[in-house]
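TA notes, week 10

Several of you asked for a full example with nothing omitted. So below is the full record: structure tokens for the whole chain, then the designed sequence directly under it. When grading your own attempts, check the secondary structure regions first.
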């Protein structure tokens, strides 16, 4: 049973709620919360129902799931505001689309004389079952953030805009060491945070890779309303 570890994890997810605060919410003592988290006692069914309602999770997840994704590669989850920004995007569907999409928007940045371009990207999920299962394709969209004042005189380029809003973020160190595991679990952790805190996902998420010295990082942004 992972109940104790899950309790502690959910409490941290809920804006670092203290044991005292959780105890007050549930009408028990802080010592009782401590015992539960150390798996030295189990709450009665009614308290389990209260805990699930508080943290917006199921009893199966709470009692038997492994909700905590522990890895030194991850930063703490944060909420960050971003100003409104404009971008142009390019999508590739193939067996390995990321490099093609990223290179295309970097080339566009050169053509537009944008120095030190900011490039973001996200998975393109609108594929058919045949493309995914038979031909093993997937899609990736790369996007170029368009600096203010950039002149674009080509009708073939469509510029889109995102409003100023908050994003839930997490940063991954050396994401390419194990990209399938590290990146997918980072997204899982962020959406768990959104769910536990009852934020509303705004159907826009992106990742941005960057370098600090010799270390590679990826920062994931998930928009919330």
């Amino acid at each position: 049973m992972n109940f104790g570890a899950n309790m502690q994890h959910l409490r941290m997810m809920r804006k670092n709620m203290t044991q005292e605060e959780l105890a007050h919410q549930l009408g028990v003592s802080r010592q009782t919360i401590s015992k539960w988290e150390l798996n030295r006692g189990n709450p009665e069914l009614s308290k389990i129902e209260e805990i699930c309602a508080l943290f917006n999770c199921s009893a199966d997840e709470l009692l038997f799931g492994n909700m905590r994704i522990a890895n030194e590669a991850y930063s703490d989850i944060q909420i960050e505001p971003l100003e409104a920004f404009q971008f142009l995007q390019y999508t590739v569907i193939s067996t390995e689309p990321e490099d093609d999409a990223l290179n295309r928007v970097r080339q566009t940045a050169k053509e537009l004389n944008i120095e030190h371009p900011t490039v973001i990207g996200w998975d393109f999920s609108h594929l058919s079952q045949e493309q995914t299962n038979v031909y093993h394709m997937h899609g990736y969209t790369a996007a170029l953030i368009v600096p203010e004042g950039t002149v674009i005189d080509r009708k073939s380029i469509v510029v889109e805009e995102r409003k100023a809003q908050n994003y839930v973020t997490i940063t991954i160190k050396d994401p390419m060491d194990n990209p399938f595991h590290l990146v997918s679990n980072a997204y899982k952790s962020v959406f768990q945070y959104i769910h536990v805190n009852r934020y509303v996902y705004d159907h826009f998420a992106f990742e941005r890779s960057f370098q600090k010295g010799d270390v590679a990082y990826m920062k994931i942004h998930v928009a919330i309303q």
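The domain at 85-162 is CATH 3.30.70 (Alpha-Beta Plaits). Use that as a sanity check on your answer.
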